[in-house]
Automatic annotation (TrEMBL):
The chain crosses the membrane at residues 42-60, 96-124, 158-179, 185-204, 233-254, 260-281, 293-311, 386-403. Pfam families: MFS_1. It comes from the Bacteria. It comes from Actinocrispum wychmicini. This is MFS transporter. InterPro entries: MFS, MFS_dom, MFS_trans_sf. PANTHER family: C-METHYLTRANSFERASE, MAJOR FACILITATOR SUPERFAMILY TRANSPORTER. Keywords: Membrane, Transmembrane, Transmembrane helix. It is found in: Cell membrane. One of its GO terms (molecular function) is transmembrane transporter activity.
């Protein structure tokens, strides 16, 4: 296994040849994410349709709930990552987050048709995600050589995406077998999530940063933003998050414009997941070679093109397929690549905290993004909201390319 050396100051990226093997810890964490994503994507695939068609939410109400779903992680990301660094228990904190999210699948069953109760359960579920994401990504970073971070995150995200690909299929199968019973989907999702927690306990090894825990404090996290490179990456990542359109809205736009039947709605994320799965590792390796920020911005440019296709005057089936493919390119070029870009800018002892700061900025921004898009859809109708979002995203990507953080 590969362990990144601890650093007392901001490290530089090593340019030596990358090791050929992916660390075992990265693969184990990828398997945890794979199984977890089967569970979570089963819920994500059916939830937008359940809330809009079954419970009757309008776009603004759905935007508020989707914003809560995206933003709840922001409240705990830095706190959970700080505890993981200070206690030197990255695995334990990540495991608690995975377990909390698993229990929330049962909470969805108990919530029934109460929108308020569903909102609370979704907030707790995202709290679990917020607790686990920083320590998990820190474990990946600390288990890998700096020169191969893009590939390690790419492999992890590829395994994660296998779960995202299988989740909607599992949801559709359960709906078919249970004659449209959403509680059956939620219970099956819980059982699968419990398996993921077991894999984490048995196969993932801790890799805490080798520093005195007395030096790890919340002030340390604030001080990370004094580094100009880390601060610029964090701020630009948040700004780009503010002008993106959430996944649920992308799929609802596809459903509305192409009149996708409710039975096949859970299959829409498969287009995104399939391209993500194919490109996560190649784009991670490309980012290691040519630069992580250009690849990150290229992913946002792909999303802008997808939005133009979704909001354009033509509604051919091939445009829907192309838009889903570009949505997958967006994730393959941004999700793990951003963590690979930010990781080397943070000392090993506070790696979880530093990555959580970046993720928190994105979560808060995407929370407001969902609310704003839902409001735009309500006020302007579907196509104008999509096209305005695409235009704002293009302008922001060009500005970020000029700034080159």
């Amino acid at each position: 296994m590969y362990i990144a050396a601890s650093r007392s100051s901001t490290p530089s990226i090593e340019r030596g040849p990358a090791p050929r093997r992916v660390p075992a810890n990265v693969v184990a964490l990828g398997m945890v994410s794979l199984v977890t994503d089967i569970s979570s994507e089963m819920v994500t695939a059916v939830l937008p349709l359940y809330l809009v068609l079954v419970l009757g939410l309008n776009p603004l109400q759905f935007g508020l709930l989707d914003g809560l779903y995206a933003g709840a992680t922001a409240l705990v990301r830095v706190f959970g990552a700080h505890l993981a660094d200070r206690w030197r228990r990255l695995k334990a904190v990540a495991g608690f987050g995975y377990g909390l999210s698993a229990m929330c699948k049962l909470g969805l069953m108990a919530a029934g048709s109460s929108v308020a109760a569903i909102g609370v359960v979704l907030a707790v579920d995202r709290t679990g995600k917020g607790l686990r994401t920083g320590p998990r990504d820190a474990l990946i970073s600390l288990s890998s050589e700096p020169a191969a971070l893009g590939r390690s995150f790419g492999v992890h995200r590829a395994l994660d995406t296998v779960g995202a690909f299988l989740g909607p299929l599992a949801a559709m199968a359960v709906l078919a077998l249970s004659l449209g019973s959403y509680p059956s989907v939620f219970f099956t999702s819980f059982c699968i999530a419990a398996v993921a927690v077991l894999i984490l306990v048995l196969f993932v090894r801790d890799r805490p940063g080798a520093v005195d825990r007395a030096t790890v404090s919340l002030r340390t996290a604030v001080n990370l933003l004094r580094d100009s490179g880390f601060r610029r990456v964090t701020l630009w990542a948040a700004l780009l998050g503010l002008v993106t359109v959430g996944d649920s809205f992308v799929y609802l736009v596809l459903q509305r414009r192409w009149d996708v039947a409710a039975t096949f709605f859970p299959l829409l994320p498969l287009g995104t997941a399939g391209i993500y799965l194919l490109l996560a590792v190649p784009l991670g390796r490309l980012a290691d070679r040519v630069g992580r920020w250009p690849v990150f911005l290229g992913g946002h440019a792909a999303l802008a093109v997808a939005l133009v296709l979704l909001g354009g005057p033509v509604a051919g089936l091939w445009l829907a397929v192309l838009a889903l493919g570009l949505h997958g390119v967006f994730y393959a070029a941004t999700d793990g690549v951003l963590m690979a870009a930010a990781g080397p800018l943070v000392p090993a002892g506070v790696r979880a905290t530093g990555l959580a700061v970046v993720q928190t900025g994105q979560s808060v921004a995407r929370m407001f993004s969902s609310v704003l898009f839902g409001l735009a859809w309500t006020l302007w109708d579907l196509r104008p909201a999509v096209l305005v979002s695409a235009g704002v995203l293009v302008v922001t990507v060009l500005a970020a390319a000029m700034a080159r953080p």
